[in-house]
Amino acid sequence: GLGAGGHPPPPSGNRGVTFTDPFGLKADTVEIGCRSVEGLEGAAQHCAVRVHNEKVDKTFELLNVGGRNVIGTAPADQVARYAGSWVVSEAPDGMTSQQYDNAVLSNASTIAVERNGARYSPFGGSNSNRYVYDVVTSSGGQVPAGALSGRTGVAPGLCGGVGLMTGGNCSVRH
Question: Which tens digits make up the pLDDT trace of 74-92?
Fold first, then answer.
């Protein structure tokens, strides 16, 4: 049953459901976390993608270092800055949670190789939020709209947008 950790059937329309896991306690999940950009608190959001299960706990983020993209796994002190913000991105229909975890891990690394060292752009084309969006969608998933719930400021690219636009391709809550 659901109390034992099972999942409810997907809702009609094949649109998925957003669940929150603010402290990252649920096993076998892909999660999106967003926090304020340092120095721009309340104006802009910086997001990361996390995969954790019984075998791995990795958080990937893209950072602006000297105007260039630096992508890698975040150290524990960086991960702690997302505490309370993690929102689960459910495995897509037809995939197990483990298959989705593996796809996200693979795509996070593949996209990192492609973008590491490229010129950073805060405008949704080559920033942390677009990196998260591209990793999740290339893995067959959707960024949950709840990732920005209760947050202020823009998150350019998080839902597929360009420029200062967040975009409209995040899953919605039902």
Answer: 988 888 888 888 999 999 9
